[in-house]
Amino acid sequence: MKGMRELHEKRLALARNEYIKSRRPKPDTRAAELQAELDSKKRQRSLEDARRCYLRQREQAEALLKRGRSIPEMKEFDLEDY
Hints:
- The structure is a single chain.
- By secondary structure, the chain is mainly α.
- The protein has a domain at 39-66.
- The chain is 74% helix and 0% strand.
- It contains two helices and no strands.
- The longest helix is centred in the middle third of the chain and has 40 residues, at 30-69.
């Protein structure tokens, strides 16, 4: 039994060494990660700009609607030229 175990361990060690010699190095992904981070920040910035533009347009539309709905002061009682 011990001989089988030793033989199995030797085979595993040889296979492990062969794998270590033949494996490909991992590609350097730092540049891709930096580019993805920059793209993410750019997308967030553009979304924030779009949100600000929408808010500005909404405020302008609300101001126009308020101006159109409001009755100027004392105009309802100004009947001199009527």
